[in-house]
Design brief:
The chain folds into two domains: 174 residues, Aspartate Aminotransferase, domain 1 (Alpha-Beta Complex), CATH 3.90.1150.10; 251 residues, Aspartate Aminotransferase, domain 2. 40% of the residues lie in helices and 14% in strands. Strand 5, helix 7 and strand 6 form a beta-alpha-beta unit. Helix 4 runs parallel beside helix 5, helix 7 packs parallel to helix 9 and helix 12 packs parallel to helix 16. The structure holds pyridoxal-5'-phosphate. Pyridoxal-5'-phosphate binds next to helix 4 and helix 5.
Length: 458
């Protein structure tokens, strides 16, 4: 009835933001070598660096933590978490891990080896790293519409099933170690995946005897989009939709730092006993005993409650609508974004915003620095700083896109924080033509975006 969607929570405990001035931020940015990963958290006014592990926990989660059973073996907290994950995923074997990538290392380390392939709508960076570390090859096959920033497709996160068949036939079904469907498609702009796409993939995997793995970090957010957009799902609950999607998969990995609404945690869920046995061995060697993995009892309590809260309709509605609000309002100012807006973040096309800055001067990183200078907003570049490579002559091979990502922590910021971010874009737009490019002065070979140093080009 009313158009204002309020935060469906009250604030019981507050954390101060230390405000600062533009002059101070110019100095902080210089000291951080124009890389926001090197800023201190306290120097940031609105932190949109990531939605991972940055959620605010509820009073119920904090209360549950007091029930943490820290028994080495057979902890009650494990029983509660196992029950919660079992009911959600329907999978018989659940392995707790300290975060998503630990589950990935166990599963892909076991399945992957030289000569094997994994195929995904888009591999997340830790997923790709774990697969490549095993010697296997990771192939991304998003649908073609995913590459067009403004193509108005309802499920832009889908995997291209025609290409999937083609690759399986070309590489040989025995050599495909798994198909990984990431929901929502994080690296593809947080775009949703349809249930039909998951069903089609399931059918193909079944026919070829290939393992179908669901990367379920943001499955609640994905379920919201299915409920909203896919025929036949408007009357199904978000949780039922998630359960149906899990029922199609043979295994699932989850980083609970996203839709688990906690600051740390994850799990691996498996349907097949022999696969579970092999993974359990690796779990005990590298994470911990089977009833805690890499987690304390209190962490497991918080995840069990978080996995329930995340499917609450009021929460999910607020979550998706507030992310959309940020994106729509920035877009209305004429700024180009990945559209439609996905579940957890807004991606801004920095190449379109700064056409005078060539890709080898990193327009995405420039926007990231400008958002901090002007508004104290921290976000991350997704472009040639993150994915650029060099050819033999040392010339930059740029990424396909030059973006800045504003990721929204869950239940952390209010409407006025978001309105402030929108307003900062007025100044970004007013000053955009006078902004210069950046050059890298220091970098590492792997994952350079975390540590690189930059300077302005005069
Ligand atoms: C975050 C994430 C992971 C890895 O999880 P961590 O908890 O950060 O180790 C894997 N897949 C996707 C899609 C993610 O977003």
């Amino acid at each position: 009835m009313f158009k204002t969607i309020i935060e469906p929570f009250r604030i019981k405990s507050v954390e101060s933001i230390s405000m600062n001035t533009e002059d101070q931020r110019i100095k902080f940015l210089e000291d951080a070598h124009y890389n926001p990963f090197l800023l201190k958290g306290e120097q940031v006014i609105i932190d949109l660096l990531t939605d991972s592990g940055t959620s605010a926990m509820s009073n119920k989660q904090w209360a549950a933590m007091m029930n943490g059973d820290e028994s080495y073996a057979g902890s009650q907290s494990w029983e509660r978490l196992e029950k919660a994950v079992h009911e959600l995923t329907g999978m018989p074997y659940i392995l707790p891990t300290h975060q998503g990538r630990a589950a990935e290392r166990i599963l892909y380390g076991h399945l992957g080896s030289k000569g094997k392939y994994f195929i995904s709508n888009t591999h997340f960076d830790t997923t790709r790293a774990n697969i490549e570390f095993s010697g296997a090859v990771a192939l991304d096959i998003p649908i073609p519409e995913a590459r067009d920033f403004s193509a108005n497709h309802l499920f832009k996160g889908n995997l291209d099933t025609i290409q999937l068949e083609r690759i399986i036939n070309k590489r040989g079904e025995k050599n495909v170690a798994g198909v990984i469907l990431t929901v929502t498609n994080n690296s593809g702009g947080g775009q949703p995946v349809s249930m039909q796409n998951a069903k089609d993939i399931k059918a193909i995997c079944k026919r070829h005897g290939i393992l179908f793995i669901l990367d379920s970090c943001r499955i609640a957010e994905n379920s919201y989009f299915i409920h909203e957009r896919e025929k036949g799902y408007a009357h199904r609950s978000f949780r039922e939709i998630a359960q149906e999607m899990f029922s199609l998969a043979d295994a699932s990995i989850m980083s609970a730092k996203k839709d688990g609404l906690v600051n740390m945690g994850g799990f691996l869920a498996v349907r097949d006993k022999s696969l579970a046995d092999a993974c359990t061995q690796l779990l005990i060697i590298t994470e911990g005993y089977t009833t805690y993995g890499g987690l304390s009892g209190r962490d497991m309590e918080a995840i069990a409650v978080g996995l329930d809260e995340v499917f609450k309709p009021d929460y999910l509605h607020y979550r998706i609508v507030s992310t959309r609000y940020l994106g729509e309002n920035i877009r209305q100012k004429g700024v180009s974004i990945i559209y439609p807006v996905g579940g957890h973040a807004v991606y801004i096309d920095a190449k379109a915003l700064y056409p005078h800055i060539p890709v080898h001067q990193y327009p995405g990183q420039v926007l990231v620095c400008e958002l901090y200078r002007i508004g104290g907003i921290r976000c991350v570049e997704i472009g040639s700083v993150m994915f650029g490579k060099y050819d033999e002559k040392g010339k930059l091979i740029p990424a396909q896109v030059e973006l800045a990502r504003l990721a929204i922590p869950r239940r952390v910021y209010t409407q006025s924080h978001i309105d402030y971010v929108v307003e900062v874009f007025d100044e970004i737009i007013r000053t955009k033509d006078s902004v210069k490019g950046l050059r890298i002065t220091q970098e590492q070979h792997f994952l350079r975006h975390f540590t690189a140093h930059f300077e302005w080009i005069e």
